[in-house]
Hints:
Blueprint: H1 15-73, H2 78-96, H3 103-123, H4 132-145, H5 151-184, H6 190-200, H7 202-205, H8 215-225, H9 227-230, H10 233-251, H11 256-261, H12 263-276, H13 278-289, H14 314-337, H15 345-349
Helix pairs in contact: 1-2, 1-5, 1-6, 1-12, 1-14, 2-3, 3-4, 3-5, 4-13, 5-10, 5-12, 6-8, 10-14
Amino acid sequence: DLQICQHRAPTCCTKKMEESYQAAVRRERTQSIQALNFELKYMIVGHITAFQEAFETLLRFAENRTSSLFETAYRPMAKEATEPVKELFTDLSLYILGAETTVESAVLRFFDSLFPLVYSRLINPGITDLSEDYTECLRLTRQDINPFGRYSKDMVTELSKSLWASRMLSQALSLGIEVINTTEHAALTKECSKALVKMQYCPHCQGLTLIRPCVGYCLNVMRGCLASVSELDAQWREYISTLEYLTNEMAASHDLEIALTGIRNSINEAILHAQLNGPQLSATVDKVCGQPKQQQEGNLPSDNIVPVKEATEAQTFMMAHASLNNKRREFISYMKRSRTFYASIAERLCDGDLVMRDSSTCWNGEDVV
Length: 369
């Protein structure tokens, strides 16, 4: 009653043993592919972590630089600006990591929060009535009167260009892991598991426990079994080319590091622009939001500044910058070597101990030859 290992001579196998062999080849194939994938997956996962750590270091450096701008140049609003600055950099970090957000919404939300502070602490420093309604009116007015001129839009443009490649690279790396995981658990067809049993275990039914498959025979069986996985070859090569393009984009003119450190200057220019146009802004705001209560000069609130860690982390920044560049080069160099990963998967599975290479005697699926 044997279904796979039928042979003219007497055999020690049973149908139940054939079923056990089928379970064994499925398990072994998964383990073999996992072993092949391990190095590639380890490399990608390691770089996902390394890139994210480098991004976070650069973001923290840029955040500290931006916070120190308020402490040194705009002390009256430094304490209140802490939260909007923190929110801006959190949003940018989430954007890089692939969250459903945009650079534009993050930057414009920041300037919406900044305008009430600039208006009440720098343009009209005597304002005391910063009720929720008045603050909200200022936030909404910002969108209409554009107090920060072209600087808010320029900041959106510059950051969008530089962060886009980082976001895409982050998503592309996650996609790579997904593809590899899917190929590990690709189900073997019945025909494939039967062919593998015939190749690896049918010799045992004849007492030939030491004989191994011929190389050509193994390649034929594996190529048949992994035809669907091998079809990924063209897409995988294209994927590697895309990774190469993205890493080059990250290092090109829209450099992530330059854009992030430029946030401080963009915000500074935007605030100066608003101050220069203070009288016109006040006239428009008074019409739209009404005139707020003013406080006597002598009673202006004192500056309760929470000291921000001064941005003396230039060395950390340079190290993160160098680390990111090295990681890019190292990563893309490795990935380029894996271009043929899916094209050569059958060859690598038929390598090593599975087949008979040195001896002239091997199993061809029917007999010893």
